[in-house]
Amino acid sequence: EVQLQASGGGLVQPGGSLRLSCAASGPGLDYKFGIGWFRQAPGKEREGVSCIHRTDGSTAYADSVKGRFTISRDNAKNTVNLQMNNLKPEDTAVYYCATCGFGSSLYPTGYWGQGTLVSVSS
Fold first, then answer.
1. Which of 80, 103, 105, 111 shows the smallest number of beta carbons within 10 Å?
2. Residue 31 predicted with pLDDT over 80
3. Count of C-beta atoms within a 10 Å radius of residue 63
């Protein structure tokens, strides 16, 4: 069992920044898990945003956020952070922390945290 606790959402103006954090815990936590973020906007399907492998730190990003978002990890604290810069209204969504993997695309691997709302509006 793995527990994921997300924090850091809020309301920001276009061009602004927010930082999301995900704290992972539980007896099932394993370094083989990647941890990352997925989001779902109203009326849209869920999409992968970013994922980081906890072992080698390799990362993946959705094309829509490349160059604006940066994912990082602190294995000592079992946390993963998502720094979001130059936010756009289309980034508005509920963001979910989850265990993840990536190859040609990002995919969830079974554990989810609660969502945190990010609203980008003037």
1. 103
2. no
3. 6
Distance CA 35, CA 97 (A): 7
Do you know the residue count of the chain? 122
- For 39-98, the pLDDT digits (tens) are 999 999 999 999 999 888 999 999 999 999 999 999 888 899 999 999 999 999 999 999
Residue 84's nearest CA partner among 99, 98, 95, 100 is 95
> 């990003």: which residue's tokens?
61
List, as own/partner pairs, every contact residues 112-116 make where C-beta atoms lie below 8 angstroms and the sequence separation is at least 24, other chains included: 112/4, 113/3, 113/4, 113/5, 113/6, 113/22, 114/5, 114/6, 115/6, 115/40, 116/6, 116/7, 116/8, 116/9, 116/20
Token pair belonging to 54? 């906890």
